[in-house]
Design goal:
The chain is α/β, with parallel strands linked by helices. The chain is about 35% helix and about 20% strand. It has helices spanning about 10-20, 20-25, 70-80, 90-95, 130-135, 140-150, 160-170, 175-185; strands at about 30-35, 40-50, 55-60, 80-85, 105-110, 115-120.
Length: about 200
């Protein structure tokens, strides 16, 4: 009998059980599905946020690699580390798309019904983060609160959202900006009912 192809959800559940158990158990770590980048134009399959932002992208057997180049570009502007979990049939083509700082793992069906993971390449640090795109992970009220803490006047805080992000980038060096964004994301109490775009 032919094996049922591994679907995204099979791989995702196995990743949670096998690769992300420590992260989920850590009180200072946020693990979230489908983190929107650049106001939702692209999403991270699984984001792990603690001392850095790590993005996990899954390409199961039923998936295509059509969106991967755009996802690679979007991840590269924001995440500190990235991991691609890929079906063996996509491995060769995917390796030609993802940059060398991305970690790569193969996910395939084990002898039982489980999923087994095989590491192909370890993750390395991303050196190409774009501070402005990183700031866009924040909702408008969050950006305003941070700027208020930096002494920005209430009048200036009424500026368009894009201006607020620019003000953050001008006032905070990348390391501090990244730390502030991570802390803000971890402190968020609502996720699914997204803040209305304003």
């Amino acid at each position: 009998m032919a094996k049922r192809p591994l679907r995204d959800n099979d791989v995702r559940q196995a990743a949670y059980r096998r690769l992300l158990t420590h992260a989920q158990a850590c009180p200072d770590t946020l693990v979230i599905d489908e983190l929107g980048l650049d106001h939702g134009s692209c999403r991270i399959d699984i984001a792990v946020i603690n001392g850095h932002i790590r993005g996990v992208e899954i390409k199961a057997e039923a998936d295509t690699l059509e969106r991967l180049p755009r996802q690679v570009a979007a991840y590269g502007e924001v995440v500190d580390k990235a991991l691609l979990i890929v079906d063996p049939k996509h491995l060769e083509a995917a390796m030609a798309i993802v940059p060398d700082w991305w970690g790569v793992m193969v996910a395939e069906r084990g002898t039982t019904k489980g999923v087994k993971f095989r590491r192909v390449r370890a993750e390395r640090a991303n050196r190409g983060i774009d501070p402005l795109v990183l700031a866009r992970l924040l909702w408008r009220p969050e950006a305003q609160a941070i700027l208020r803490g930096l002494g920005v006047s209430e009048r200036e805080l009424r500026a368009p959202r894009a201006t607020l992000y620019t003000m953050l980038v001008e006032r905070l060096p990348l390391r501090r900006l990244a730390q502030t964004v991570r802390q803000t994301l971890k402190a968020r109490t609502t996720w699914r009912d997204r803040s209305p775009l304003s």
